[in-house]
Design goal:
Chain lengths: 479, 479, 479, 479
């Protein structure tokens, strides 16, 4: 289960040509439980969603205490010090920054005092109208100390100081546009919020009398909770001494779940919005085999992201599955440097071709996607240098042509290879004998009849939420 | 010049029965100067005003950078790292907390972003209506991250987001009650503000084209600037590329300068609101001699705070001045622990009686004041144990009977010995043969005809600013 | 069609023991139409819902013009001056005050300028938390010129000055509790809003390309529009140059339509929330006949409110229907004075018994309800004095025991006869031989299976929206 | 005393080429007095300052009642109804609109409810930054119902809802720029405010225990009060049950009293800012005689505005004073129509030349000023047609070249004849044999050594308060 985490850690740096994971959130309300430690384990299970900083806030009915730091959860949080965070409610956050730079002041949860007492907040996603909101808050006298869009949410909630906290959250949801899955802690309650499109996942679990909220169901498993259901788009879940209640800030409809969670981001053992990630990924591989018929000797994955799809391809095509690239699991995050030189080195250090498997073979390689294209070319060369006769490069998703503004760092559009080159040009660029991207129809077909519920903006530019207030990049620069 | 600073450091802990110094502020605007380093030196000269934390903020016309930490300026600020703080404007702060606990989040300067860009603020003094203001700000949606009254000022300035910054400061001055000497830094200007009563000192200096603001003129000397004048009560001084301008938020009148600055707080080499501290203190000693005529062999000070007054006493009375108590200058702050056991030990470790001077003598001891009375008794006993025949304890100020709410930590009223005992009872308590406090008339007489301009609330309870919004203690507990 | 209006006019004064009608709203968006005049006709059709004041606001895309005055629409509005109100959008209002006294300043529509330009608003209903909201607005600096709860709505909408107008309305809907059907006019659009419980009616009609909003469908008929549908509880309808769009501020559920609209308030030719008022009323009469079996010679209505139910009673029971009380249609509003003396006189002047019909008969009299009981006793006496042998008094609704806080003036609870007396006591009080109120089950049964969608608070005290913020009366006194 | 008032009434219309008077304010605090009636008399004495609308608000310690209407005080206010306005505090206002059009909604006092209870306000002057302030208030959610700058002041005061009312007024004074003399009534107090430049007059009087505030001291005389002093620029006067207190929102300095008050606006029997208007005007005439030496037979005034200066001219020059133009005092306001045709007629109807006085004479005519020049030419022709041999036209003020933005309606600059023509050109235009304007030095010399305290912007364009936020005209168009 933690294998995938290890993979993500190794791939977390800019050196590796992958979409960046975003953030993971976790929350628990459970009298009599060591909620701080359970949250720590929850973050560990969500570590693949962010490795820049981590934090835990714990409430005991009267106040909120906080621990946060830079790095992995295990680096950021002092497990021994955690035992001093007594209480029955906790939230946690792992962060890869999409907004705000990598400083401790930007680490989450954010904890603050307002007219309602202390409140803490952890956020996964990205607001698209943060510039407008921030300048409105400025002109009304707000003061900011960080550069995150999450501090904007905090200030909006505090601004709506009248009525109930849920009223404030509902009004805030009217203001904020874009992607957000939130867990909020007050002195006495745990609250989960999901944006009306449901861009980012958020699920609800139960362990005995305790309730758990998490970005992915794999974190529920880790703390011994069972998946109850996904939080619905536009829903607010409140858990307090009266149990669980639900409010809908917006009527249902217009779902736009991030399809890339299924392609790459989420852990395969998670179940998101009704779909088992592992099963969905295998179907992508099967569909790839239907779309791209080729005479080949073996099919191999780019580990680890291509594994499940490669297996599906093998099953459907009948071509034998092999593991032709071995991954060095001992490459830590600190080793990988974001300079260009190291990038070249990085691929070789990270992936080792198995010459016995590859030599003389017509090889089908399956990966999930190509971002800038730099790594793919090196992988093709590695395989060819190992004696392969043919190398067919297959992707379990369509070409990424557009930036994401809803919480995934896709780089600027000008860096995306598919924004400038067509498939044939990319094939030549990476030096493969064949190149095929899964068609968008094929990808959507995997989900059966529920095809209208996904955001596919990175493939076709159909942005479900207006992005005109952004500055053209999925990563905001507020500083 | 730094001798006094060393003394203050040694006396800074709670173990020593002294009024607590408060805070010191410094600001400089000077193109071409190493303003960060000059501010560091300025804080060094003001170190006696606060040893809990220190910080420096530097502006270069476009942004503000900050360094701050716990402890003395030399501990809190990395002198090497300081060289990276480039700019032509700087402010600095040394802090002894009167409001808010001793955490880094409460250290100053506070730097924040608001509609006007970045602003930093350093504050000496204490607001008396902070609870009211804070709850008003809360109900209007403000968010707080520290427990200082200074963050209240910051939020008020940001709230008044329309009109000029000076307009905002003027409106804020209408709201805030109590004592405040502020230095404010923006991306392009340095601003000094003094409350309409002028409780705490703030002076203006000049070095060539550069302007300097400081709590005491001794800090001007340190950075090679000359004293121009004191900032007037209710005045706002703005220094920017257009030079210096002045605004009066309130008409003059009702000055209430803290008289205790002259008795104990300020460095003797400072000149405050037109009076030379050293000269004033010597006159207090002379007046003490006029009020308390005694046959004695020698007059000795309690070092260092009683020195100048003892010297004045000797001059006026004709009784020879001796140094009968030697101070161990090597006792650091860290050594002194605030527990009761250590307090007893503390006096002996800190003061060494000179038996040759004291034995067989009728001794007049001069100190500046008595707070709780614990240390004074030990000093009398030390002297008597050294062979003195008589010990007359003289104070260069009247009995402290009331708490200060304007920036000095006098402890709660119930801890003040003079709030509960009369002079004869105190004499018995400390075991002296004679005890005399300088009369309030005598103290005021030292200043000639300008006697109506001082706050003497700690002596007689005449509070110039309403204190009903405080919770009965000069030290606010917002947490 | 105007017969009913005439009736209402005659019964509008306090002298007549009836629940007071509340307000009526109307709106139209139609290029090329004389919208001011059509609104005038619409108000005429809704006149039975309010006779204290009337007003019309017209927008032409650039500004809003207003005419309003005291009295009936025909008195308040200058039909000739109306022709100067050019535009393609209009709203109108007839008012019986539930909040605010009877002054011109309280007449609606309210027209004001805010950051979005000019806006006008007309409101039917009553907010239950207006005191709280008003004091919150006060503390945030709002200024009020009237005493209506509608001005509170106006200020809230203006407060939420950021985002779209619809966003502002949605946030306002989170704040305001209670009953509200609103029509709003901006310089360029017409908006209809109905509270999440749907207390008061509001329907949507169409005439060619023009859209019409009205409290009751009878007003659609008057202006030649067809009923499209009812506005849903929690729905916002926006009509502008782009046509009609709908937003749901709240998810559906928890409907609480005022059942008294069907019993008495609405015009019988209206269709409200799917039910034909005339048909429903006749069924009430039928059900009454099933519940109260009596040997009688004739059944007569109290005109006009009892007519339809009396007819239903006659159909079901087989007892012949007669008109035994004739109404003097020439009694104007101005004639009826609210003093006690005139009340006695009032009944005789207004109702004339037909001796030929009544003499020697066992009479069943059907009315819709009893409020204070003063009039009912006089009617029984009138009939008995005309020679009737028996008088059975039947009501097509259950006893009114509780005040309404959602827009109907039921008087204070202490004035309601059924709050203090049981049915037998009331029978004695009014001097009837028999008295029967329709049972609540019987009333609800008329609506078939949709029995859970009504507010029946005036009968059983089940208030769907918290009334603790009211001051115990359905009529707010803000002055 | 009322003669001057009558004159003003007759000249109040647009037909007569005069600067428009602005507004007059009055306030009284006096237990046991009929304050409503005294205010009515006060307005009567100030009628020359505005004839478009009038109003009176009266407070009795618990609430404020209001009467206002269009026209003269005698038309707008029902003297009998006034007796129902019981209380011990009152304010009144006569208005000639400089901002906002002539509708009842714009008449003053404005009375409103805010967090502090009821407040009424009457304003003389003109704000120069009303557009900026209004849009700021809009963006913070304020709602406006009139088009006056006074409603802006009202909303600002209400916005500053925390601290004392005086604090709110002080903050408001930081925001508002331009000219304002205010009288404010609360349920329990009377407040007078004068802008920091003192553009418009405001004086304080006393009658027994009662205090009076008025635009001019002539109104004090009318109600039997004695002039105590002028309200100082930047001063706030508060009168309540504790008597009178004063606050200074701004330090003194930069006075800019409107010099035109002395030239034309004020009544001659008033004493303003230390100068007797009558005496000052006579000195203007004397100075005119020193500057313009001429052989002439008689000196006559243009009645009534030139009378006092003509008399001074006669005294200094030795030329005999005569009344050569008789004024028809029975021309009412309603008779004068603002069309061009009637303007021609207007002069003849209004002024009748006395042929016996004028025939064969060399005539010096003295008036106070020329605005557009239309009337002056007609007067010259009238005199010449009556047989005068020479006509010398003299003005007791310099040429008006610039618009006023501080409360006087000078017309747009393009309408001012002196903005386009030099003196010789104007002489030809009006057909006089000689034309002389009093020099600015000469005018200022009349005031002795206090020459730096006046606003002379209409003569020389030295605007003491920035006018860049205005739209180029002294009369704002907010609608």
């Amino acid at each position: 289960m933690t294998g995938r985490c290890a993979k993500s850690l190794a791939e977390g740096g800019h050196a590796w040509d992958k979409l960046k994971e975003e953030c993971g959130v976790f929350g628990i309300y459970g009298a009599g439980l060591d909620v701080a430690r359970l949250t720590y384990y929850g973050l560990y299970a969500l570590q693949h969603r962010g490795q820049e900083s981590a934090g835990i806030a714990v409430a005991d009915g009267r106040r909120i205490q906080l621990q946060k730091g830079m790095g992995l959860a295990s680096e950021a949080i002092d497990l021994e010090g955690l035992s001093s965070l007594q209480g029955h409610i906790a939230i946690g956050h792992v962060r890869y920054s999409t907004t705000g730079s990598s400083h401790l002041v930007n680490a989450q949860p954010l904890v603050f005092r307002c007219s309602r007492g202390m409140i803490g907040l952890a956020h996964n996603g990205n607001l698209t109208n943060v510039n407008t909101l921030r300048s409105q808050l400025f002109s009304n006298g707000s003061v900011f100390q960080s550069s995150t869009d999450s501090e904007v949410i905090v200030n909006l909630i505090a601004r709506y100081s009248q009525g109930s906290l849920i009223d404030s959250i509902m009004k805030t949801m009217i203001d904020i546009k874009g992607a957000y899955s939130l867990v909020i802690i007050t002195e006495k309650s745990l609250i989960g919020v999901r944006d009306p499109h449901g861009f980012r996942p958020l699920c609800l679990g139960r362990r005995g009398d305790a309730y758990v909220l998490a970005s992915e169901s794999c974190a529920l498993d880790t703390v011994g909770a069972e998946l109850v259901r996904d939080v619905e788009p536009g829903e607010i879940i409140i858990i307090d001494e009266n149990g669980l209640t639900s409010r809908k800030a917006f009527q249902s409809g217009n779902r736009a779940h991030c399809i890339f969670e299924y392609v790459y981001i989420a852990r395969p053992d998670s179940r998101i919005d009704g779909f088992n990630v592992n099963k969905v990924r295998r179907e992508m591989g099967r569909q790839l085999a239907r779309e791209y018929r080729v005479d080949a000797d073996i099919v191999i994955p780019v580990p680890d992201s291509g594994k499940t799809a490669a297996w599906g391809f093998a099953l459907e095509s009948g071509i034998p599955y092999e593991e032709g690239l071995m991954k060095n699991r001992y490459i830590g995050r600190t080793f990988i440097q974001p300079s260009q030189n190291n990038r070249d080195l990085g691929v070789k250090l990270k992936l080792n071709p198995v010459r016995d498997v590859l030599a003389g073979k017509r090889v089908v390689v399956v990966d999930d996607s190509i971002v800038r294209g730099t790594t793919s070319g090196k992988i093709v060369k590695l395989i060819r240098d190992s004696g392969a006769k043919e190398v067919h490069f297959l992707l379990s998703s369509p070409p990424i042509k557009k930036s994401c503004f809803y919480g995934i760092d896709t780089s600027n559009e000008e860096e995306l290879i598919a924004a400038k080159k067509n498939v044939e040009e990319i094939r030549q660029y990476i030096g493969a004998d064949g190149l095929h991207y899964l068609s968008l129809e094929g990808l959507l077909g995997v989900f059966g009849e529920n095809q209208a519920v996904f955001c596919t903006a990175c493939f076709n530019g159909d942005y479900p939420v207006d992005i005109s207030d952004t500055n053209g990049s999925g990563k905001y620069v507020l500083e």
